[in-house]
Amino acid sequence: MKEYKDIIKEARTEAGMTQKAFCEYFGIPLRTYEDWEAGRRKMPSYVLRLMLYKLKIEGCVEHISEDVLDEE
Q1: Cys-Cys with 35: which of 1, 11, 41, 66 at CB 3.0–4.6 Å?
Q2: How many Å apart are CA 41 and CA 39, to the nearest integer?
Q3: For the chain, which domains are there?
């Protein structure tokens, strides 16, 4: 399974957003996101699932890791 940092970076890239735009879209601090994407900090799994769900529902991405959304 891919690491969270790789999954969120792929989702951001597919959505066509810069890190700054992605953070503004979700209302999260840029430094927090930079740390997640660089692997300096691990984002909580529920945050990743919620972000991917929002991106999918709003039509920003088509190809996301479905197994992440199904995790408990």
Answers
A1: 41
A2: 5
A3: 4-69 (1.10.260.40)
Instruction: Identify which has the larger pLDDT, 43 or 63.
Output: 43
CA–CA separation, 20 and 63 (whole Å): 22
What are residue 43's phi and psi, to 5 degrees? -75, 145
Residues near 34 by Cβ (< 8 Å), separated by ≥ 6?
A: 19
Distance of CA 14 to the CA centre of its chain: 11
Residue pLDDT, tens place only, 20-44: 999 999 999 999 999 999 999 999 9
Q: Which residue has the tokens 């984002």?
A: 43
Among the listed residues 12, 5, 4, the one whose alpha carbon sits nearest the alpha carbon of residue 61: 12
What gap in Å lies between CA 17 and CA 14, rounded to an integer? Answer: 8
Q: DSSP letter at 38?
A: H
